[in-house]
Design goal:
The structure holds 2 protein chains of 2 kinds.
Chain A lengths: L2 H4 L8 H30 L4 H22 L5 H23 E4 L2 E7 L2 E3 L1 H20 L6 H21 L3 H18 L3 H20 L2 H11 L10 H11 L25 H33 L4 H25 L17 H27 L10 H9 L5 H4 L1 H4 L19
Antiparallel strand pairs in A: 1-2, 2-3
Helix pairs in contact in A: 2-3, 2-11, 2-13, 3-13, 4-5, 4-6, 5-6, 5-7, 5-12, 5-13, 6-7, 7-8, 7-12, 10-11, 11-12, 11-13, 12-13
Chain B lengths: L2 H5 L2 H35 L1 H15 L9 E2 L5 E13 L1 H4 L8 H16 L3 H9 L5 E4 L4 H12 L10 E10 L7 H4 L1 E2 L5 E2 L1 H5 L1 H5 L2 H5 L24 E4 L3 H17 L4 E7 L6 E7 L18 H4 L1 E2 L5 H12 L7 E3 L4 E4 L2 E4 L6 E3 H6 L3 H11 L1 H10 L27 H8 L6 E2 H12 L3 E3 L4 E5 L5 E4 L4 E4 L3 H12 L19 E10 L6 E14 L6 E8 L7 H20 L11 H6 L3 H12 L28 H10 L3 E5 L3 E6 L11 E7 L3
Parallel strand pairs in B: 1-7, 23-25
Antiparallel strand pairs in B: 1-2, 2-3, 2-4, 5-6, 7-17, 8-9, 8-22, 10-15, 11-14, 12-13, 16-19, 17-18, 20-21, 21-22, 24-25
Helix pairs in contact in B: 5-6, 5-7, 12-21, 14-16, 14-17, 14-20, 16-18
The chains are: A mainly alpha, B alpha+beta.
Chain lengths: 425, 693
């Protein structure tokens, strides 16, 4: 495109955000070991089976995150369609029977020796595509045929494929992401509400007329009655969670692992609750809040709509995944089958989360870079009150101040580094 | 691309910012909701959830670690746990991946397969499957064939469909290979794995193993995981308990108890054998017994170990300890003669009587004829406090602390205050005080052990299933009770009881000098509160050989009906148990080596004759003069007692030194051996009674 894209982002990494993600990955490796020992031993005859894999995935994930963060995220514009197409293809393949059935659902696609879970990638692909498309459509977002329909058609296609696997949780997250980004982009609330109602009806229909989902729903509503069969998993999960009390039973001392199926994947937070207690859960939620806060900050400070959509979509993805996962583990929500980002076992989930985090870091780095780059190209002609605005906007609102000093003459992006407006010195 | 600048500019930028803020706030609110819900779940209700989780584990992890084995002193197993396989079903696992519509059909075929393998009603199995429980027993205690059939079902890959969710697990079941042997001592184990009664209860913590550690090592269906640091299930299993009991001696003790209890129609009886030097309990028998393999069938009363749980009034055997106390305190001297008041003596308002009225008696004879009056005099000379204190030092009135639950302490001061004069006098000959048979045996062992009271040892060691020693008992002196020379004197004195005119000649063992004391105590009639005239406790306590005691034995027979004298009822049991002990230990009768082999060969009972000859040579009266009058042509012969009553015949048989075995009722019809046949002392004489025609 231009010089800016070719140039690597030179800004500083958001160390806090990166550290939070890396800490979560490390924590996840520990928790996966603690919660998978039994299954690893009974099924794989090797207590470290999951530990070793998660550690390798974790290292790879951190590498992916750092590498992706060092690229300029604008490059993703070109990848929006190929990624969307690829993911759709993988989803179709897994649905039409190449899927590897695990846990009663064909969520995995076998590619040679490795298995991938395309629905994890679909979430990131959708964000990347929506950000591209929303930025391109700008004001047209407010229209129905251009602003709403295509986005919901694409999201609906992906959701339908997810539901066919079946992965209800994945579909819910895709729907949520579409809504979030369209809402942020300024779509008409009336349209959104309409689609929301249609979606709700559709979801209800999907639940009501898929007998197992309906039965599960009923069982979840009346958990104590069904704790031995259909509500077994949420009941055991609550039992785990609750028995953690304040300080937990101690790392590795949790015993609910014996009863809670998939305790190292979707229900890992129940084991965290049991072993580390309320204190541990509080810490975990605080880290996700931190990630969301830094992510939203990066979104608001992003140089362009594209970065803003990307950063906000990704932050919302992390936040909502953690929220739903914890809610499910506490049986506040019915069982969905969503991972706890960065923590749950699974290469696909971990690598996709890491890639997403890399993009988020790249957006925030682009933003940082501008601040970092400023002194070099500084023009001291900045009015003091503009500088004050920067300060009061808590550092992520320079663009607010941008137009007034430069005014019209800041025509093209290459000229941006030379913009005189942002000189806090 | 000026869009960048425009993007968050002006009103549009503000709107976007507002929307982002709104959504981020909602997310934050959601996470806050998560935290608040977590605090309710974990902080407010946490304790309740933890309790539920704990309950679930206890129910689901039903297989306890293997219980330790109880062994005797030679390592023979007295109580072992054998694993009996059982089958359980995880219905969720069985129906996993089955389309909802096909569940009933799948349940039916699986139920048919399982029913065939286990010979169960398929309809019942189907019902269990459709309940969709994570755990349900299908059949407990299955055969090896059934276990194999279930494994086949679970492993089947081709042909028929594999039936998932079946698990075969070992369930422990306690088994007593020697059945009734030492049953009240050992106790039994309830189906929930808890030891009841006896050693099983007292050492439950050792035997039971470590279910706590096991918990973390079982998966959802209760299967044991052997890796993760524990390669060997034995590391979690209960400890093995080694007892000081010798199963051979225990067997003889029980056999003799049962035989005597039936002969004399007793209510209950017990025997304790201890090693005086170490305090080890070699046998502790209690009659009636029961079969712990089938304990449900037994009477609860039969499950008590009476030797420790039952306190009784000892009667005359207490005189041993009174005399020892008197000698130790110097109120009597060994050579002193005491006046026995010709059979009656008044103490305050109570008259004490002797069964053998006598005048002046040497201290030895006081014990030999068991004079209540002279014992009372010694007690009164000592004074109540001094006598009480010495008896306490002998261990009476205190629990011995042996590893059997429900031990009685016995009572020296029933009213909890110092004795008045009458009480001191009666306590001196064993009335108004109560003891357990184990206390009696330990106190006699203290005399045998030179005056030092030992701690009784029942559990010699506790060993882990992998063979590491957990703890080991070592002989421990509880306290010195009387000086060594006093103990030696008393031991020598009570040898007279089993010799000559003593009351305990029935306890004499051929070739060994036996020290001991008979006792015949009246029981208090609970209805009247006075001493009963027809209910007694017959007992004998003593040790053998008198000069170097190896075994101290206490015998107690409660309410014998045919006879009640300790010398007639309890002394023969003592003798036969002592004989078994001496034989087991390989001790050689004294003097055998010195006798002329040629002459011994001509004698019917070499050991007996050698002993008598030795005694005569040393100037003493012939040892067995009274009980076994020498008859020309060898030993005694069976007298003709045809037409005698049961009581007369039994008494005569006992006088001859034979063991009466009573059959039938009425008048004596015949004996085996027949009248006129020679028999050996200690042999059985079968008395067959028939109702008079």
């Amino acid at each position: 495109m231009n010089q800016r894209v070719v140039r690597r982002s030179g800004g500083d990494l958001d160390v806090v955000l990166a550290a939070a993600a890396i800490a979560l990955v490390g924590f996840g490796v520990v928790m996966v070991y603690s919660s998978s020992v039994i299954e690893a031993t009974t099924v794989y005859r090797n207590a470290q089976h999951f530990l070793i894999r998660q550690a390798i995935f974790g290292a790879a994930a951190i590498a992916v995150m750092l590498i992706v963060s060092s690229f300029d995220y604008h490059r993703l514009r070109r990848l929006a369609y190929p990624v969307l197409g690829g993911v759709t293809l993988l989803l179709v393949l897994s649905v039409i029977g190449l899927g590897h059935t695990g846990g009663g659902a064909a969520r995995w696609l076998k590619l040679g020796p490795i298995q991938v879970q395309p629905s994890e990638a679909a979430k990131l692909a959708l964000i990347v595509w929506l950000a591209y498309s929303l930025e391109k459509k700008r004001e047209l977002v407010k229209t129905f045929s251009i602003g709403m329909l295509p986005h919901f058609l694409v999201a609906g296609l992906l959701m339908g494929l997810c539901l066919m696997q079946p992965d209800f949780g994945g579909a819910v997250v895709l729907l949520f992401l579409t809504f979030t980004l369209l809402f942020v982009a300024g779509a008409r609330l009336g349209y959104l509400l309409g689609v929301l109602i249609v979606g709700a009806v559709g979801a209800a229909w999907a639940v009501r007329f898929t007998s197992y989902r309906y039965l599960r729903w009923l069982a979840w509503l009346d958990m104590s009655q069904h704790r031995a069969d259909l509500a077994y998993q949420p009941y055991q999960s609550v039992l785990s969670f609750g028995s953690g009390e304040l300080g937990g039973m101690g790392l590795g001392s949790g015993l609910q692992v014996l009863y809670l199926p998939e305790s190292h994947t979707d229900f890992i937070s129940a084991i965290i609750g049991e072993e580390l207690g309320f204190v541990g859960i509080l810490g975990l939620v605080a880290v996700y809040l931190l990630i969301v806060a830094r992510g939203v900050r990066a979104a608001l400070a992003a140089r362009d709509d594209y970065g803003m959509y990307l950063a906000f979509g990704i932050s919302a993805l992390f936040g909502v995944q953690a929220l739903i996962n914890l809610g499910v583990a506490m049986a506040m929500l019915p069982t969905k089958g969503l991972t706890l980002p960065f923590v749950s076992y699974g290469g696909s989930s971990l690598l996709v989360s890491a890639a997403a985090m890399g993009v988020l870091l790249s957006v925030s780095r682009g933003n940082e870079e501008r601040i970092a780059a400023r002194p070099a190209v500084a023009e001291p002609a900045r009015p003091p009150e503009a500088s004050a605005t920067v300060m009061t906007e808590a550092g992520f609102a320079p663009r607010e101040a941008a137009p007034d000093p430069g005014g019209g003459p800041a025509p093209r992006r290459p000229a941006r580094p030379a913009r005189p407006s942002e000189v806090p010195v | 691309m000026s869009a960048v600048e425009r993007s968050l500019d002006g009103p549009r930028g503000r709107w976007i910012r507002l929307r982002v803020g709104l959504l981020a706030g909602l997310l934050g609110l959601g996470l806050g909701l998560v935290v608040s819900s977590a605090s309710t779940l974990m902080l407010e209700d946490g304790a309740r959830w933890r309790e539920l989780a704990e309950l679930q584990r206890q129910r689901r992890l039903h297989v306890a670690p293997k219980r330790g084995t109880v062994r005797d002193r030679n390592g023979s197993a007295l109580a072992v746990t054998v694993e009996v396989p059982s089958v359980s079903l995880d219905a969720i696992e069985l129906l996993r991946g089955v389309q909802p519509a096909q569940v009933p059909a799948r349940a039916r075929t699986a139920a048919n397969d399982i029913g065939r393998a286990l010979s169960l009603e398929p309809a019942a199995v189907e019902k269990k499957i459709l309940q969709k429980r994570r755990f349900a027993w299908l059949k407990r205690r299955i055969t090896a064939e059934e276990a194999e059939a279930i494994r086949q079902l679970g492993a089947r890959q081709r042909g028929a469909e594999r039936v998932a969710g079946l698990a075969v697990e070992g369930e422990g079941r306690r088994y007593h290979p020697r059945r009734e042997l030492a049953a009240p001592l050992l106790g039994f184990v309830a189906p929930d794995g808890e030891g009841k009664e006896g050693v099983e209860h007292a050492l439950d913590d050792d035997l039971r193993g470590h279910p706590d550690q096991l918990r973390g090592l079982r998966d959802r269906s209760g299967r044991l995981l052997l890796s993760e640091g524990v390669e060997d299930e034995r590391a979690l299993a209960g400890h093995d308990v080694h007892l000081s009991i010798d199963q051979g001696i225990q067997f003889v003790a029980e056999r003799e108890l049962a035989s005597a209890a039936r002969t004399f129609e007793a209510k209950a009886a017990s025997v304790v054998v201890v090693v005086p030097r170490t305090g080890e309990v070699l046998a502790m028998a209690s009659w009636p017994g029961y079969n712990p393999n089938d304990y449900g069938e037994s009477d609860i009363e039969a499950r008590r170990e009476r030797a420790v749980s039952e306190a009784f009034e000892p009667g005359s055997s207490m005189k041993i300890f009174t005399v020892a106390a008197g000698l130790a305190a110097g109120v009597v001297t060994p050579t002193q003669k005491l006046f026995c008041e010709k059979g009656t003596m008044a103490v305050d308002n109570v008259v004490i009587r002797d069964t053998h009225p006598a005048g002046w008696l040497a201290l030895t004879d006081v014990l030999a004829v068991s004079s209540n009056i002279c014992s009372a005099k010694i007690g009164l000379a000592l004074g109540g406090d001094k006598l009480y204190e010495t008896l306490r030092r002998f261990g009476f009135g205190d629990r011995t602390g042996v590893a059997i639950p429900g031990e009685a302490s016995g009572t020296l001061r029933p009213r909890g205050r110092p004795w008045v004069q009458v009480e001191t006098a009666s306590a001196a000959f064993g009335q108004g005080v109560s003891v357990t048979n184990l206390q009696l045996a330990m106190a006699a062992a203290a005399i045998a052990n030179g005056g030092e009271l030992m701690e009784p040892i029942l559990v010699t060691k506790v060993v882990t299933a992998t063979g590491e020693l957990v703890r080991e008992a070592t002989p421990a002196v509880r306290r010195r009770v009387v000086p060594r020379h006093v103990a030696a004197l008393v031991a020598e004195m009570i040898v007279a009881v089993t010799e000559g005119h003593g009351t305990g000649v029935e306890a004499a063992v051929n070739g060994f000098r036996v020290a001991g004391k008979t006792a015949t105590a009246q029981k208090i009639d609970p209805a009247t509160g006075r001493y009963s005239l027809d209910r007694y406790v017959a007992s004998f306590v003593g040790f053998v050989p008198a000069e170097r005691p190896a075994f101290a034995i206490a015998v107690m027979v409660d309410e014998p009906m045919i006879d009640h004298a300790g010398g007639a009822v309890a002394a023969p049991i003592f003798r036969r148990v002592a004989e078994a002990c001496l034989e087991w230990s390989g001790m050689v009768p004294r003097g055998t080596a010195k006798a002329d082999p040629a002459e011994l060969a001509r004698m019917p009972d070499p050991a007996h004759a050698a002993h008598a000859a030795l005694r005569e040579a040393s100037g003493a009266a012939p040892a067995v003069q009274v009980v076994a009058p020498a008859v020309a042509g060898g030993g005694p012969r069976v007298p003709d007692m045809t037409g005698w009553s049961v009581r007369e015949a039994v008494r005569r048989t006992l006088e001859l030194g034979a063991v009466p075995r009573v059959r039938g009722s009425g008048l004596l019809a015949r004996t085996e051996p027949a009248p006129g046949q020679p028999f050996e002392r200690g042999a059985s004489l079968v008395l067959v009674f028939e109702p008079p025609t």
